[in-house]
Design brief:
Layout lengths: L38 H34 L3 H15 E3 L5 E3 L9 H31 L5 H28 L4 H26 L10
């Protein structure tokens, strides 16, 4: 009588389950680890810090400079020019010759500007939807999910919400977007591309060690 031959799969084999608690690819549910070097922390933190330092600082400087100029000027002509500037901001002529009022500013913007507004709003809304999915899963399995995903959704939503407000405000006050907006969108594209690559890697190489057929 021969004993059955048992085969063992080494842990470094592609078909072996992953026992690494620092599995870096999403969704890494229930990992309980928060990696500071992951794009899920670096990307939203960098975007929010950039907006707080460059975006809000720029707008506060412009507002403070305008208020200081108006308060220190004693020339009646400066007051008249300030009034004209206020009126021009309240009613701007469109390329068609029609007046654009503040209350209808967005409705008369070019299609490209409307597309940018809609895209920024949709991106901010997707983080709310993703956070809802994460919370729903945690309630369903009665166990909290990855802290990294929760941090990514929360901080990313905050950054994109602030950026959307600045996006509309900048167009309303200056009629164009500055380097702050272009830098934010390009940096976000690079960061989200890294996160997308991690999702693809997680799908192709799941945590259980197998390979996806996708």
């Amino acid at each position: 009588m021969y004993a059955p031959i048992q085969t063992f799969v080494p842990l470094d084999s592609p078909s072996a389950p992953s026992t690494d608690p620092n599995y870096p690819f999403p969704p890494f549910y229930d990992s309980g680890n928060f990696l500071w070097s992951t794009p899920y922390f670096i990307t939203p933190t960098a975007l929010l810090a950039f907006l707080l330092l460059a975006g809000l600082g720029r707008y506060l400087a412009v507002v403070r400079d305008s208020a200081t100029t108006a308060a220190t000027s004693s020339d009646p002509r400066d007051a008249h020019r300030s009034l004209e500037t206020h009126l021009s901001n309240a009613s701007t002529l469109l390329p068609s010759g029609h007046a654009r009022r503040d209350s209808r500013l967005l409705s008369h913007d070019p299609p490209l500007d409307k597309f940018v507004y809609a895209l920024g709003f949709i991106i901010a809304a997707t983080f709310i939807a993703e956070a809802a999915v994460v919370c729903a899963r945690a309630l369903a399995v009665k166990q909290w999910t990855s802290i990294a995903l929760a941090y990514y959704d929360g901080v990313s939503w905050l950054a994109w919400t602030i950026n959307f407000v600045l996006l509309v405000t900048e167009k309303r006050k200056f009629g164009k977007w500055s380097w702050v907006q272009y830098t934010f969108w390009w940096a976000s594209g690079v960061g989200e591309s890294m996160i997308a690559w991690m999702w693809v890697s997680g799908i192709m190489h799941p945590r259980d060690g197998g390979y996806s057929d996708v």
